[in-house]
Amino acid sequence: MLPVLGAAAEAATSASPTVAPAGGGQPADPVASEQGRPARMVVVYVLPVRDQIARPVLYILRRGLKEAIERKADMVVLDMETPGGALDVTFEIMEALGKFHGQTTTFVDKEAVSAGAFISAMTQEIWFAPDGVIGAAAPVSMTGQDIDETMKLKITSYLKARVRAISEGRGYRGQVISAMIDKDYELKIGDAVIKPKGELLSLTASEAAKTYGDPPHPLLAAGMAKNVDDLLRQKFGAGGYEIVRLDVTWSEQLAAWLNTIAPVLMGLGMLCLFIEFKTPGFGFFGIAGIALLAVVFLGNYVAGFSGHEPMILFALGLVLVAVEVFFFPGVAVMAVSGLVLMLGSLVWAMADIWPSEPLVLSGDLLLRPLLNLSLGLIIAVVLALLLARFLPQGWFFQRLAVTGAAAGAAQIAGVAPEAGAAAATLVGTHGTVVTGLFPGGQIEIEGRRYEAKVEVGSAPVGSTVVVRRVSDFNLVVEVVDT
User: Fold this and answer.
1) How far apart are CA 470 and CA 481, in angstroms?
2) What confidence tens digit (pLDDT) does each residue in 376-423 have?
3) Are 458 and 441 in contact (CB under 8 A)?
4) Domain shared by 365 and 427, yes or no
5) Structural domains counted in the chain
6) Are residues 364 and 469 in the same domain?
7) Distance, CA of 157 to CA of 155 (rounded, Å)
8) pTM of the model
9) What angle separates helix 284-302 from helix 332-350, to the nearest 10 degrees?
């Protein structure tokens, strides 16, 4: 069971974003004019950290940070009100915050408990609402119970080391966060004992803003504000900033669930597309396959892994495969290229690529996408084999094998050995398509059924065709305009 930072361990609330602009920049002060007013607007992204720290929160933060980097935003503000959450997700959030090179600020709106306190320590500044509270960051189990003492000591030691690494040069922050993690840590500044051994530290806004030392320095708070807008007015002046908010709705929760079943969705989608290419016309299986794979792309987009580009690449690959199957059968280059683009786009969609970093094809980047893709392919192959094994007499298999019945006195498909010599006499003869040529299938000539194919395009059931030549395996026909 994964440890969490905090006493609460309820299910994460539903979420999904309504997106606005984005960017990345240097620690943000507005560019000042001679009159002391900002010469340009400071771009600020406000990212919500609400309720339980879980995958939906990570998804909105990761996507927002990538947009902020792309837009070269000056500042990111975490609007925080959380009772804590999962430790592994907390570390992923901290890692994501470290990739943004502009100014980062946490606004503690009511509470930043446990995992919230640890994430706050990662940002350059921590501001408080007047009734804000921060603290109590000891690791506990997902049920809120204490974990094994040895494991707790290991986790606490690691967390304190992380705090020292991210708090260097930030006043008393490292000592304060350590006192929130470790009940045996005594927080003492000069002669003032702020937290004795035997309890975890929690601070109100006024306590966090209290100054200590010589020269005086706030214990933790960079300032106090009524809300995020008030915070930005204090820093940049009224009208000195442009604010972009990413609002969490229900789709992050949905994306978290969809990403857990992404291999299944990929497998079903690829199976449906395979069936569609093997059956006449375009219908349910084609629509279902495209829809299932679109859901995979959408889930990864909401999770902050990719933009729209992988979907475009997949569509291009799909078009190449369709052109090969319907118009230029036998030209393997187009089909292979299309399949490579389709599979590559799925890997791309699941890779955590950051706009601020050079693309390095490493094991860490590709391991998860390749595992998911491999599992999806295995699911598709297994399901296809099961369909072929258990449904050989059903309507589905009949349709897949293009052996549907035709009206009239048709006999077994193909040219019988004794009729092989007479096949050459069929050149120039007209026939009727009885199973659909996509590009291969069966036609009927004078009550006898033959294997046939069209060299270009396809021919639906009922079309009239003319035999142009005879190959070793079938008749090569051309559709006759009617």
Assistant:
1) 21
2) 788 888 887 777 666 544 444 444 544 444 333 334 344 455 555 566
3) no
4) no
5) 3
6) no
7) 5
8) 0.58
9) 40
